Amino acid sequence: MTGNAGPEPANDEPLGSPPRPMQARPLILGIHGLANKPPKEEKQAWWAAAIREGLRRNLGEDPRDLSFEFVYWADLRYDTPLSEDHNREPYYPARGRGPFPTADGICAPTLTDRLYRIVEWAQEKTGHLVLDDLIIEHRLDDLWGYYEDSTFREAARDRLRDALMQHAGRPLLIAAHSMGSLIAYDVLRQLERDGRCPPIDHLVTMGAPLGLAEIKHRLAEEHGSLRVPYAVARWSNLGDREDVATVGTTLAEAYAPNAAGVAVTDCPVINAYRRPRGGVNHHKSYGYLRTPEFSEAVAAFLDGDGWVASVEMSDAEGA
User: Fold this and answer.
1) For residues 220 and 7, is the Cβ–Cβ distance under 8 A?
2) Residue 186 sits in a domain of what CATH number?
3) Element spanning 311, H or E
4) Residue segments in the chain with a per-residue pLDDT below the cut of 70
5) Domain membership of residue 227 as a residue range
């Protein structure tokens, strides 16, 4: 699948953005990924709990007053939230104590990754993205709906767009998981064309499918050249190599730096989430939110305004 490049700002320069007050309170803005979810309040509380758990166990730190807001769009696709009886992968504090495992910068491609790169090369040569179409339609149904249903697509974007404009004067860290990373990228590129994208201190994508050939083609059709959005001062892409959503080219390979020289930093991580009844899910949001790499990103963001305080971990907290 190919398409014409979308519009680019004149002279490849960032457009204007809303001014920021001198002492604005920093905000972490999360957006979830694929599939139905528990009710918004529950999902938001679980994300915040996973972030706090990671900060405590990885860094021995805890924010005095973590400012976190959640962009929820599952209700646009599903009539009723996921019930407790049907939720096989809830948040719960992980067993053990001390820091969660880290990949130590090792980013060796898996067999699945190598095979996909061969297929991607063949798809690019022929111009037919058959495999990606099958994966997206039959395994990533919400992603398929995002592109086939324009009403749903624009409504999901509006949720994030409204939140960004509401908090335009605050330091912002966007934590975008899975399909949420696609929505975030689309919205940031749209807002920069409109000349009203607020500064984003740190964009953290987790388990992002932005390296899939089909997704890259779709993005290029709408936005033009693939690059870091102008408003983004830092972009970290967290990926577990066992997470099938992260197959394909690294984002640093696929997305060029912006005019300020900001490039994507691909951060290999270990997503250690386990289901309560056993089994792993290397794509689960809670696992990504508890990684040392995400904790370090959050702590650095909050430290800029002195919002993180050291705490002593008790045995109960680490259990």
Assistant:
1) no
2) 3.40.50
3) none
4) 1-23, 105-140, 305-319
5) 32-77+99-309
